[in-house]
Every structure is written in C-alpha cells, then in structure tokens.
Amino acid sequence: MSELNAIHQPVLLDDCVSLVSGALQREHSTVVDCTLGLAGHATAFLAACPKASLIGIDRDAEALDLATRRVAQEGFAERFTPVHAAFDEFAEVLDGLGKERVEAVFMDLGLSSLQIDERERGFTYAQDAPLDMRMDTSQELTAEQILRDYDVSRLAFIFHEYGEERFSRPIAKAIVRQREEHPITSSRQLSELVDRVVPKARRPAGNPAKRVFQALRIEVNGELSKLSRTLPQIATRLSVGGRLVVESYHSLEDRTVKRFMVKGMKADVPPGLPVIPDDAQPIFRDLTHGAIKADEEEIGRNPRSASVRLRAVELARELPERWVRIFDEESRETEPHQEHSREHRQSSGRRR
Ligand SMILES: C[S@@+](CC[C@H](N)C(=O)[O-])C[C@H]1O[C@@H](n2cnc3c(N)ncnc32)[C@H](O)[C@@H]1O
To answer: pTM, whole model, 2 decimals?
Structure first.
C-alpha cells in the first residue's frame, strides 16, 4: 500500500500530525477524519497517537475501500471505523456510532490525486473525458446535466461565484447557444468552447478553462454549502480542548473556514464594554495564528501543496447556549440537489 502515498502525498503532514495529536493523548480519545481519501493523514494520526481511534469519512466509495485496506495493512484496523457519507452528515454519523463528543476533527478538502487522475471521472481539463465530476458516484447530478439544464443566469452565477471567472456571462451564453445545436458532453468540447470565448489578450496564467472546471466541480458536489453546514456541526460535537484542523486549496474554501474560525475567536460584545461577561468570551483559541502554507521544498516535491492554507482552532470552553442555537441553525441550511443524493444512497444501502 506504500504505492498509495506515491499516488497521493499528504500535504503539510508534520504540521497536521502535531496539531491533531495535541488533542489525542488521553485514553479512548477519538479523531474524525472527514476527508479520509487514501488515509495518508489518517494512518499518520493513528501511528502518532496510540491511545486514539479514528473515524474516517469519505463520500467516494472507491477511496474508502482503498483506505480501509491500507489502514488494515499498517496494523490499525482495530482503532479505525470507515463511514461512507458526505461530511455534512457529521452529526448523523456520530449519532449512528453512539459518539457524543470527539477530541479532534480533521479536513483535507478537495480531491485526492487518485480522483484527479481517473480520466473517466472528468475532473480535469487536461484529458478528454465525459463531464461527470461527482465525488460520490451514487449521486445523480453531473457536470453534463448542469451544462444541459441551467439557464444563462444560473451558469453565469456559478462561473462567477465559484470560479471567480471574469468572462462568466459570455461563457454561459456560448454554452446555451452551443447546446441548441448539440449537447456538450466532454471535457474537450467545454475547454474548446471556453478557449473560443475568452479573449487571448485578457487571459490570466494557466489554462483558460481552469476556473470554469473548478466552478462546475464545486456546484456538482455542493462543496461550499456542505463545508458551511459542516463546520458548525463539528463545533457542537468537540470536547472542551478539542481541535478542528482544516486544509483548504482555493480561496473560497479558505474564506469560509477563516470566517467561521475568526467569528469564534472574538469576544461576543459591543466594542468598548469594560468587562466581558462569561458567556461572551471567545469560544475558540487560535492554534495557527493565520494560515500555515507549504514551503518551497514541499511545493517542489508536491505541486498540489502550493495552494494549501492550514488553519486550526481549539474549543476553549463549553459552548454557551446562544452559540449552540446559532450553530444548529447554520448546520440546517439546505441545498437543492443534496436531498436527492442522500435519499439515493440510503435506498441503495451503501452506508457502512
Ligand atoms: C484531498 S483528499 C484527502 C486525502 C487524504 N488526506 C490523504 O492523505 O490520503 C480529499 C478527500 O475528501 C473527500 N471528500 C471531499 N468532499 C467530501 C465531502 N463533502 N464529504 C466526504 N468526503 C469528501 C474526497 O472524496 C477525497 O477522497
């Protein structure tokens, strides 16, 4: 299984192990890895924390199987529970396992290199493939359906919001024009379309289709809304002194994580109040003081690490009732296609 490390090198591994293991020194402590992937980080956590057990969540059944085999081969099977789920089902997963609180939660967002390299999953503009982009292949919505069904405004919105694409509207219009003639089904067709629309003189560095592919991937998998719903669920299930450690790879994800953490690091009172009441004290202690980035050496060895931002906080005290109410509300915000995906998975009985 060492070949799995060659397929996907875990990013900022030493920092992540040190941050997570700070909360896992007690007997029977538990860490949840919400993005198990190929278990590169997870196996390092289990090796560094012999008293801890790990719950590994992934929505990709293939990754989960490979990770489960790897954990067993490295001799950690007894301290490991794999769960096929999306991480916004965090509270449900813990309820199902009879776990009230956990000591650490880790997230390494985005795709594993295995997913990027699998041509037929259609994540990359670098190879011609069907426009699929589902991390969970039991979900219905694909990138092809979005390009077929969304109107100009909705397409332009996702390219602008999730891809920060300057030519979002002309690209959306060109998609709708082209699909009236014939459907857009392959990554090559989409790349060529973007290439025709974006003026050569006004292109930022890199492939012009990069931002459109990122936007479609975020929309297909509901990435930002899932993240926003998950962070508050995690906060309500951390033990006091428990840690939340998150690695993000694009600015939209990092902004979501940063806002969430910073909100909890501040005293919850109007400026100038001379005494801060107990229930208004900050709930989080900052462990990374801003974001940790990869150094030149790691970027040279593993280019995927170039965009990483690692942030971590510790739960400083029992959550006041007011925060519990806020987090409960935030974790219930729904997204349109998610309900379908969940129903489908339950009816096909694939949850372990
Ligand atoms: C970057 S990889 C994790 C790699 C892992 N840390 C390792 O060292 O092998 C991210 C993983 O998270 C999974 N993932 C992404 N979004 C998810 C979500 N909303 N719920 C559950 N898993 C998710 C992907 O399927 C992928 O396997």
So the answer is: 0.87
